[in-house]
């Protein structure tokens, strides 16, 4: 019955492969090559300079500053988002514990899920512009509230001390809903009789969460962590739209550094590609480390 | 009914009804406290999520004076002229249409190529299958930034710079890794007995795909289509690099970003709020109607 499968394989595989090869693979491969040149964009001349760009990169203070912000994000974003996500998902899916086998959600949990998830379907540009207005020093929602309470009104995005954290808060805000739903779906897949047994043994809710639910969710938490870590190494759109890395580079990230180096006032394409290569290896090592650190035996319910 | 236990706190020693009672009472009291506590946090986060959105919609009806003097207040009148101004003068209407054109093209391509490639990977044995598969799927891990500079030239040399066709092709290409990954897993779960039966009955390989496998894969196709639609509709960095010229061809995300810059200079806050509302409301409406499919579509891929 295998007769005639090759016409299908070729017609089905070659067009996608071509599209992918031209627009995805070839740019990535070229980028590595460009990173070893001193190419200044639109000029035709590009000289091979070996690893010089990477040497410059090591001494580039602005870049290190951006890397530091990305590292802070890498730690903060997954911890806070996963923490809040687990907390809300637990409340929504097993907060209303009553009766004997009652591991059920609190009342109105479907409404909460609907509302929490909404930022996830909004474009990041909309979220950035919306929050930029919320943070607006004079007519923003946040400062209007603070003034109403008789408190001070900081210039959130204009102050080097607060700008970065204000953007981080928006990242958490827009991500939590997704993880509430993700963890919720995983919690629903845990067999009820495990909880019945635990309840009969008299475990408290907290013990149940720490000793039963979280270990059973570990696979999902791991996925969430990798996903958030990769998001933390990006963060480009929010930062560019809300602060453009400012004030005084306080909220800069690697992606924005690279974008401005390539498409800013100077088009240093060679150097920008070198930054891209660094970002590539950072992303790769974070993903590999996350996979290793979080590796556990997969649990299957049969 | 949940009732908060308000009776005099009985110490275990004073409770004469034996262990059965105390065992019943302790969790109930805990429940009352925890519920007030948890509902408080749930409500708080719900408010944090909705308030900024509601505030933008309300502000879109205000005059600039009202926005500046009283950020919390309600508009004196519903000024739909803000919306009209954003729709025509700030070209939000045009950008909507452009985004629609680009995403229609790219989503069709993504689904067609993604499904065919995934089907081949999932159901056929051939040489270098693993190599090609990991070549595709590996694309999920790379930061798009690394590709930006060369991509700019690839697209320009192909004569596709500043065109919707170019943008559609690029969107589709960058959506393939996840689509192939997701659909390969999905096609593998479909029963092979049906396929074998069809082949024995004389069904060709092409007919088998279009008549049997594709219809069976519908739930998976819908999930991944929703995912791709949202990520392509919200795409920002690719158009920013590949659509730098003619303003009339921009997609929605670019248009909004430009609107924010220009309204910032002009001090036309109501126009900006109206533009944001116009971009947000259709998404909100579609989301509320299809929330279950969207939530499961977006989270399904992460659980595989």
From TrEMBL, chain A:
Main localization (coarse): membrane
Give the family, as the similarity comment puts it: Belongs to the binding-protein-dependent transport system permease family.
What is this entry's stated membrane topology?
Multi-pass membrane protein
**Which SUPFAM superfamilies does this entry report, sorted A to Z?**
MetI-like
Q: Where are the transmembrane segments?
A: 71-93, 114-131, 163-185, 216-239, 269-291
Cross-referenced InterPro entries: ABC_transporter_permease, MetI-like, MetI-like_sf
Asked if the keyword Chloroplast belongs to this entry, the reply reads no
Its subcellular locations are: Cell membrane
Gene3D superfamilies linked to this entry: MetI-like
Domain of life, source organism: Bacteria
Q: Which GO terms describe its cellular component?
A: plasma membrane
Record key words, sorted: Cell membrane, Membrane, Transmembrane, Transmembrane helix, Transport
The reply to whether Transport figures as a keyword in the UniProt entry is: yes
- Kindly list the biological process annotations in GO that this record carries: transmembrane transport
What organism does the record attribute this protein to? Plantactinospora soyae
Pfam families, from UniProt?
A: BPD_transp_1
Q: Where is the ABC transmembrane type-1 domain?
A: 67-290
In its UniProt entry, what is this protein called?
Answer: N-acetylglucosamine transport system permease protein
Automatic annotation (TrEMBL), chain B:
The record's section on InterPro entries has: MetI-like, MetI-like_sf
Q: Which domain of life is it from?
A: Bacteria
Q: How does the record say this protein sits in the membrane?
A: Multi-pass membrane protein
Return one Gene Ontology term, BP aspect: transmembrane transport
* TM region(s), chain numbering: 31-58, 95-121, 133-155, 167-187, 208-230, 269-290
From the UniProt entry, list the residue stretches annotated as the region Disordered.
1-24
Places the protein is found: Cell membrane
Q: Name one GO cellular component term.
A: plasma membrane
Q: Which Pfam families match?
A: BPD_transp_1
| SUPFAM superfamilies membership | MetI-like (SSF161098)
- Show where the ABC transmembrane type-1 domain sits: 96-290
Q: Which UniProt keywords apply?
A: Cell membrane, Membrane, Transmembrane, Transmembrane helix, Transport
Q: Which PANTHER family match?
A: ABC TRANSPORTER PERMEASE PROTEIN MG189-RELATED-RELATED, SN-GLYCEROL-3-PHOSPHATE TRANSPORT SYSTEM PERMEASE PROTEIN UGPE
| Family per similarity comment | Belongs to the binding-protein-dependent transport system permease family.
Name of this chain's protein: N-acetylglucosamine transport system permease protein
Q: What is the lineage of its organism?
A: Bacteria, Bacillati, Actinomycetota, Actinomycetes, Micromonosporales
């Amino acid at each position: 019955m295998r007769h005639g499968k090759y016409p299908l394989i070729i017609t089905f595989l070659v067009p996608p492969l071509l599209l992918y090869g031209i627009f995805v693979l070839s740019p990535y491969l070229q980028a590595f090559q460009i990173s070893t040149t001193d190419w200044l964009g639109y000029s035709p001349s590009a000289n091979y300079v070996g690893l010089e760009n990477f040497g410059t990169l090591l001494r580039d203070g602005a870049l290190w500053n951006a890397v530091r912000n990305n590292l802070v994000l890498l730690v903060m974003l997954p911890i806070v988002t996963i923490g809040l996500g687990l907390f809300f998902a637990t409340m929504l899916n097993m907060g209303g514990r009553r009766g004997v086998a009652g591991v059920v959600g609190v009342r109105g949990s479907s409404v909460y899920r609907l509302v929490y998830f909404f930022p996830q379907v909004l474009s990041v540009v909309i979220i950035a512009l919306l929050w930029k207005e919320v943070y607006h020093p004079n007519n923003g929602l946040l400062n209007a509230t603070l003034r109403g309470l008789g408190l001070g009104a900081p210039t959130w995005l204009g102050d080097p001390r607060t700008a970065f954290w204000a953007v981080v808060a928006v990242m958490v805000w827009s991500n939590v809903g997704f993880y509430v739903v993700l963890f919720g779906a995983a919690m629903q897949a845990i067999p009820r009789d495990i909880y019945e047994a635990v309840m009969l043994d008299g475990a408290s809710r907290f013990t149940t969460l720490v000793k039963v639910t979280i270990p059973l969710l570990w696979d999902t938490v791991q996925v969430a962590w990798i996903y958030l870590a990769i998001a933390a190494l990006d963060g480009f759109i929010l930062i560019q739209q809300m602060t453009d890395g400012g004030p005084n580079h306080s909220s800069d990230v690697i992606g924005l550094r690279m974008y401005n180096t390539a498409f800013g006032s100077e088009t240093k394409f060679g150097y920008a590609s070198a930054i891209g290569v660094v970002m590539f290896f950072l992303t790769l090592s974070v993903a590999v480390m996350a996979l290793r650190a979080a590796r556990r035996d997969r649990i299957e319910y049969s | 009914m949940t009732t908060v236990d308000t009776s005099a706190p009985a110490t275990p020693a004073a409770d004469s009804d034996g262990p059965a009672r105390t065992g019943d009472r302790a969790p109930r009291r805990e429940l009352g406290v925890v519920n007030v506590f948890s509902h408080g946090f749930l409500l708080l986060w719900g408010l944090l999520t909705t308030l900024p959105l509601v505030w933008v919609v309300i502000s879109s009806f205000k005059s600039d004076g009202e926005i500046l003097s009283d950020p919390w207040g309600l508009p004196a009148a519903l000024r739909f002229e803000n919306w009209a101004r954003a729709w025509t003068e700030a070209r939000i209407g045009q950008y909507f249409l452009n985004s629609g054109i680009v995403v229609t093209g790219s989503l069709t391509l993504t689904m067609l190529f993604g499904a065919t490639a995934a089907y081949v990977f999932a159901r056929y044995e051939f040489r270098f299958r693993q190599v090609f598969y990991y070549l595709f799927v590996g694309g999920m891990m790379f930061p798009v930034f690394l590709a930006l500079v060369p991509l700019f030239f690839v697209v320009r040399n192909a004569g596709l710079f500043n065109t919707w066709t170019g943008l559609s092709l690029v969107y589709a290409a960058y959506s393939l890794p996840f689509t192939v990954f997701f659909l390969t897993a999905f096609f593998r779960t479909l029963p092979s007995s049906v396929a074998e039966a069809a082949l024995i009955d004389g069904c060709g390989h092409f007919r088998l795909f279009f008549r049997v496998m594709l219809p069976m894969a519908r739930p998976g196709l819908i999930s991944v289509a929703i995912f791709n639609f949202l990520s392509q509709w919200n795409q920002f960095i690719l158009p920013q690099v590949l659509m730098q010229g003619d303003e009339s061809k921009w997609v929605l995300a670019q248009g909004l970003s430009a609107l924010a810059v220009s309204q910032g200079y002009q001090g036309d806050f109501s126009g900006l709020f109206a533009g944001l509302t116009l971009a947000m409301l259709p998404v909100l409406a579609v989301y509320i109607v299809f929330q279950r499919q969207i939530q499961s579509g977006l989270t399904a891929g992460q659980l595989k």
